[in-house]
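Note to self: user wants both folds in one dump. Writing first protein now.
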Amino acid sequence: MAKKVVKSEKIWATGRRKKAIARARIGAGSGKILINKLPLEEYFKSELLQNEVKTALTLVEAENKYDVEITVNGGGLTGQAGACRHAIARALVLSNETFKATIKSNGLLTRDPRMKERKKYGLKKARKAPQFSKR
């Protein structure tokens, strides 16, 4: 589980998905979400990804109670959105233990274990073989 680090009433948690790693810091506030010092709408242009990031806050009805600052790197946009969602969910559980049942029952505390399979020697990709030639 994430470590509870309290720095001036803010709680830190780490979330991961694929190659993306997100570090979220939540504290009491008005509902601002900053990702890499940009507003959520600027960083994730797609509304689908914006909703994914806000999933945990929406579930516990805390959208306007916490300010969230996230530093995310690695992976692509979808992986980063998943990592942000995971980090926010972990931070919310650390801030208020009563949220745990709701968040856990919706599967937000489980890290998505799917990763890209590594390329094997003699193959073009993980499983794609070169074209077979009879002669």
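First done. Writing the second protein, which came from a different request thread.
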Amino acid sequence: MSASAAQAYMTIGEVLGLLSREFPDITVSKIRFLEAEGLVEPERSPSGYRKFAHSDAERLRFILAAQRDHYLPLRVIKEHLDAADRGLEPPPLGGRQRAPRGLVATDSVREDTGDMRLTRRQLADAAGIDGDVLAELEEFGLVRRVSGHYDGEALKIARAAAALRSFGFEARHLRAVKAAADREIGLIEAAVAPTLRQRSPGAHVRAAETAREIAALSLKLHAALVSTGLREGLDP
């Protein structure tokens, strides 16, 4: 391949850097997932590395903007792109509800998404999964309904599970993660129990704030432990 031809392509990391300013939530896993769903088809080098043309990057930009600005499910976006690829007039993208704020907000331990109410179809479309995958997440206790609807935390879980599927993780593989989270919840609840037993005004508010702070620290500890373990196990 000539130098000029090589410059016409980008690595997945370069595409990520190109799009991340406009779409802060984009990840390598998300790009791989969109490829697995057939929405973008980068070329491959002889050694198997993805080679993204600028047209692929623009296609990804269109997909991400359609999700963010029009709250469109991937199946509708794919229908639009397939029609354009065949030289047909694509169906209009307008007329759809814009995503609720919580659907495009960045993840945070302190983010309050409990008041979000999503139907089964809305959750599946927003997370980029199908009904069978959602059923598996429910079967293994990873996602559940609250008062007949799914909340913002269910959406976060479904999105994370969808990204992990691109690495071969199915719902059954995530049972250990769920079990560890349940044990951690028990520890936090025990830590704030004395505050909850107080009868002073604001006791429940203080307990909730303390629980969130402990959870944030626990997440940092968990990330550090995993990083250390991987470094010790994988570094030469």
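Dump finished. Worth passing along: The longest strand covers residues 50-53.
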